[in-house]
Amino acid sequence: MSDKIDKRARSERFRQRLDQAMGTSGINQSALARMTGVDRSTISQLLKDKGARLPNAQVVGECASALGVSADWLLSLTDNPERAEDIVANALTLTEAPRALVDEQIFAWHQEAAGYKIRHVPAGLPDMLKTRELLSWEYSPHLGRTTEQAIGASEDRLNWMRDSSSDYEIALPMHEMASFARGEGYYSGLPDDTRLAQIAHMRQLSEQLYPRLRLYLFDARQLYSAPVTVFGPLLAVLYLGRNYLAFRDTTRVQGFTEHFDALVREATVTARSLPDYLDSLT
């Protein structure tokens, strides 16, 4: 808070916020006294004293800890009641990333960010642009006999993402697309007809969904990016393989946004020129 307040007003706000926090947490005076190691009469005095005096720092800290709020909030030094450790915990989370098509967590983030621009650097070709044949080839080693069931169950989610109110910008390294077209590296063993059908499918979608979906290819020798998705101003998620690392604090989300926008600005193949580039691969 930037506004200065006098001691009497600060003391009054302390009483109000202490009472508010006790009501929210369901902790009464007796319980708070036990949790803070002071007499019940001390808590009663804190709530009723109309003077300008504030309790000492230890009592304020113990009350804040017991009630799950920050001492700064009790003292009207901030309007955010969250403790610093809770703010950090909420701003940065590590969640499991199962080897699956559009898992529950990813889909929930897409739904949360509906209407915002979603910026995406995939680990490979983006799932939302893959043919059923490519999905089957890619996920069969992990899902076995349940592959077709998994693809079927995910189609609604993939279609929702394609048809959502969000704008999608996807930035993909050029070498990923080139390796796919040649059937090299990760895509070694992929049948030629599956590769050609996938390229044609991407070309069709890139024109059909443009400008709501824009796909760019960047030169990873000039600019590198780990797999990351930025869900509007809400959060940015790094893909680590077995886990997602999600950031919700404004500064880091803005940093990831600027990183992605640099990939788009420096793209070798723009969204407008992508169809011609895909034609050159076949």
UniProtKB/TrEMBL annotation:
List the InterPro entries hit by this protein, alphabetically.
Cro/C1-type_HTH, Lambda_DNA-bd_dom_sf
Q: Is Disulfide bond one of the keywords UniProt gives this record? A: no
UniProt KW keywords: Membrane, Transmembrane, Transmembrane helix
Pfam families membership: HTH_3
* Membrane-spanning segments: 223-241
Its domain of life? Bacteria
The UniProt entry's coiled-coil ranges are none
- Annotated HTH cro/C1-type domain ranges read 26-74
Which GO MF terms are attached to this record? DNA binding
Q: State the name under which the record lists this protein.
A: Helix-turn-helix transcriptional regulator
Q: Which organism is it from?
A: Cognatishimia activa
